[in-house]
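Bench notes, afternoon.
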Amino acid sequence: MTKDTPADDPLDPLDRLLAERACERLILELVRRLDLGDPATVAELFTTDGVWEWPYDDRRIAGRDALRAYFGGRPADRLSRRLCTNILVTVDSPDTARATTYFATYRVDGYPGHGYVPPPPPANIGHYEDTFRRVDGQWLMASRTLVLPFGGPTRNLGEPGPAR
């Protein structure tokens, strides 16, 4: 047993593994939707009362409608790619789990929709602290907290000079 898995663990090892994988897949699907899909649909991956927050900036978005508006309000000409690693999911009960995920985000605005961009330095490097709840048999993200020790401005390809 690990320090996060007590000897009297009520979860079957297969159920634990399936829960871990479902939560990990939610993290990866969120990133895919932000970078390659429709960002507004990220809200569907959260519980109805789900929360995304960035405590350092006092930013807190609560509820699916607010999450849909927030993520759907990204600039249409934004090009981004997030690299996620070290995803560690801990299942706390049959219906709750938490995870830590490290990430680096590459991002520019003003992308014309074709061609490539010389890679800028990452705009952000940090980690997420996530909680999950199983609702009607489906794992959903209950909260995502951004911890951002390294961050910078998003470069706009249409503006001369340094990033804004």
